[in-house]
Amino acid sequence: MAEGSISPQLDELSSILMGQAFDVLAAGRDVNVLLAVADAAGNVASYTFADDGPEECLEGARKQVRKLAKEGGDKDAGIHEPQCYAIAYEAAVADERGSYEDAVILEFGEKGAPAWSAFSLFDGRGKGDDFRWTDPAPAGEVECLL
Fold first, then answer.
1. CB-based contact 64:57 (threshold 8 Å)
2. Each residue's pLDDT expressed in tens, for the chain with a length of 146 residues
3. Distance of alpha carbon 111 from the chain centroid
């Protein structure tokens, strides 16, 4: 795999998770923190973290990835040792003027490679087909959890 590139499996996992986040927002609900983890066979386990504040939920998702890596997967969820993961959550991103705009943040990584973050701005929460979002923009490298 080329430096800075991601596998097709991680690209698909990340795209699906981001799409799920947009669907939730278009329906007018809160995204909370969404986690998707895939193993080498392509089995995917999904988790939602919503019982605490946003920072605690995000940290809970990150801890879950580390736990799955340490324990070799999640038998009950049908996955073996995780190969890649994506975490999506709602936040605000500052623009060039210092104003904050609503965004979905995505953190994604895979075993043996750097992890990255990206964001998509959105508008029209709860407006169904009138919900709009931007293409993901890179937000930088983050700690790989695998």
1. no
2. 434 578 999 999 999 999 999 999 999 998 899 999 999 999 999 999 998 888 999 999 999 999 999 999 999 999 999 999 999 999 999 888 888 999 999 999 999 999 999 999 999 999 999 999 999 999 999 999 99
3. 16
**Please, are residues 83 and 97 in contact by the beta-carbon 8 Å criterion?**
no
Question: Which runs of E-coded beta strand occur in the chain?
Answer: 33-39, 44-49, 82-94, 100-110, 115-123, 132-133, 137-142
Write the single-letter amino acid at 123. D
Q: Which DSSP symbol is given to 22? A: H
Token pair in block for residue 127: 């407006």
